[in-house]
Design brief:
Layout (H helix, E strand, L loop, with lengths): L5 H8 L38 E4 L6 E3 L9 E3 L2 E2 L23 H5 E4 L3 H9 L9 E3 L10 H4 L1 H12 L3 E5 L8 H8 L4 E6 L5 H7 L6 H13 L3 E9 L8 H11 L3 E6 L6 H12 L4 H10 L18 H18 L26
Parallel strand pairs: 1-5, 3-6, 6-7, 7-8, 8-9, 9-10
Antiparallel strand pairs: 2-3, 4-5
Helix pairs in contact: 3-5, 8-9, 9-12
Length: about 350
Amino acid sequence: MQENDVIPFVKSLRRGRGATVNPDGRFEIETRDFISDGWTDPEMPERKLRTTITIEHPKTIISRNSSPDLPFDRSVNAYRGCEHGCIYCYARPSHAFMNLSPGLDFESKLFAKPNAAELLAREISRPSYVCKPIALGTNTDPYQPIERDMKITRDIIKVLAAAKHPFTITTKSDLVLRDVDLLEPLAKENIVSVGISVTSLDSRLARALEPRASAPQKRLRAIAELSKAGIRTLVQIAPVIPSLNDPELEQIMELAKDKGASSAVCLLLRLPGEVAGLFEQWLEENYPDRTSRVMKLVRSTRGGKNYDAAFGTRMVGTGPYATLINKRFILACRRLGFKTDKYALTTDLFRKPGDNQQLDLF
């Protein structure tokens, strides 16, 4: 058997997926590899990796963090895993805690939390609860394809809307437009803002990086439609990948501004845990001529390593390249009149679910 015999089998299995491999999780005591045994019938239809959904029943839904370099301290995730399949996703290593791979498993073996809205209502009703903006879409996309049918994110928004609880949304999907009817009245009271992530304007690159996310033009249209509805919308250029999408930084910001975006966020590529190996193998298959240069630049922003998780620098990196990207972003924000704070939302209107306080007459 030749080394390349495995490639057609694996490619057919993962058609339309981001990861090129499915390594075992780091907590497993055994490792497995796909090989071609020569028995595959060339006349048989190609195999396809199908998405499976496992129903999860957590006891709590609000995740909290004390990170000094995050602008929020609480978040809600309706799903584990993400069918968008973004090869660079920093959440991929979390699938190892489910005894699954951060590779193909992360984007095909998903977990849904249908009781999320019920749990959320219960948690924000507690007497000790203090209202601060909740972030939706911090770990996996709240509008990934399975949301179209499951509508868990929509149910979560209904709970937040009824309580007038401030929240932010981050997504790569134009499915967010489905919920404009809920978001528009909240935006008038400064209770919600939406971040649309635009990684590249190149459809080929975007399809390879994020195979099941909305196309770039659909995301720009979503920015325009949300802004037209009066919903504060920002563009996220995330991640900035050296020698791949970095030349597009200013152009993405300019187009987003033309569509009505009011602010912008720029985040440098992060490769924690298994993501580094997955990303490098993806480069070898999709952009073999750039692999060495991209990884060299990435390491130049992380003190010579694939990743450095130090607070204060993990989002922006260090070194000349990281400094240059940050300066370009700041200058573009100034030129375009972008703001940078999407969490300046009002908390004064919040009312705990079930709170039947008598309204003021005047």
